[in-house]
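Structure tokens
________________
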Amino acid sequence: MYSFANKTYRLIPLFITLKIPIFLDFDYNIILLLSFQIHVNILTNSRYSHFLIEGLHTKHLMTLKKTKNGGNTMKGFAMLEIGKTGWIEKERPKCGPLDAIIKPLALSPCTSDIHTVWEGALGDRHNMILGHEGCGVVEEVGELVKDFKVGDRVMVAAITPDWSSLEAQGGYPMHSGGMLSGWKFSNFKDGVFGEYFHVNDADGNLAHMPEAVSPEEACMLSDMVPTGFHGVELADIQFGDTVLVNGIGPVGLMSVAGANLKGASRIICVGTRPACREAAKKYGATDFISYKEGSIDEQVLELTGGKGVDKAIVAGGGVESFDPIIKALKPCGKIGNVNYLGSGTYVTIPRVEWGCGMGHKMITGGLMPGGRLRLEKLASLIEVGKLDVRHLITHRFDGFEHVEDALMLMKDKPADLIKPVVNIGK
């Protein structure tokens, strides 16, 4: 019994639960589900009834997300077959015990994607999500991952080796599991141009994104910087070397920057586009020549008084590029190739200028190693102001839907293009 207003009542408690779904996105059935509990006391006698609302409590709040098909799928921009691309829906990647699932913050297409799709350089691929340059936020981690957690902002290299492999233990992680098999994204595994992407061996292949490094800059650390710098490593550039860089797209520009950091005295660049030449000057280029204005080797020999160059980096061109570079190289010189040779059957080497096979002119072609340590070291160059990758970025898009636009821009290569970036979120 309960006394109220000098009268005696019988108390009847009543609990009412209300669940209110609020649709935030009808295309993907994103639902905000609000659940309220109302506590009502009913006081009654033979003549009167009173309703007392004792409390309004939010009992539960959650967001449900399902796709159009109701399954665990996602959108991605893919190679459908040689010469054809398009948007597809695929199953969201599954996370293994050592792995991570990443939601992208920024993405960037690469000329390698162009070779893969429109030249069929890797052979036919069907419904394979493209892209290997990006950064993001950790969405999920495996139970054995030690150094990363959900919500971390991370950098990811284009090459993601299996660090426990024999090849990695032998010093060549980029070939873990077989030649070029450290290159998984958009080679034999879905790439990063999806709403989510998978990273194997997360503790070895992810790196925390420093606050001083933006997502756009982190994209450049996926491939352009480490590949360009690997060309410098392969050419073994030393203080005072005269260096030839063949091709000054984004990779070649990072080879120029790396050669400058390693102490090259003279850096001769082969390239014609004004935007690239201006960026190359900022990175340390001293001279420019054009394949449109005559033989590359003759122009190099004229610039160097007939001596040639100590080292060369091949970051552009085709299988025919090696002929004039061998001719422009001093005896005992070294060539580092980081160019993706997307077509052609044989690389041509001039017999006589190669010293009939005995001129100690060495060619080393390599895929960059990838890995967390390399990412962290390269990011530190940006942090302290010794490397500014922003000169590479000429075109920006906002929104995941513009991945296709950025890729087609890379395919068409307008004169003012160096590198496009797609910003997706914070």
Notes: The first strand starts at residue 2 and ends at 4. Residues 25-31, 48-70 have pLDDT under 50 and may be disordered.
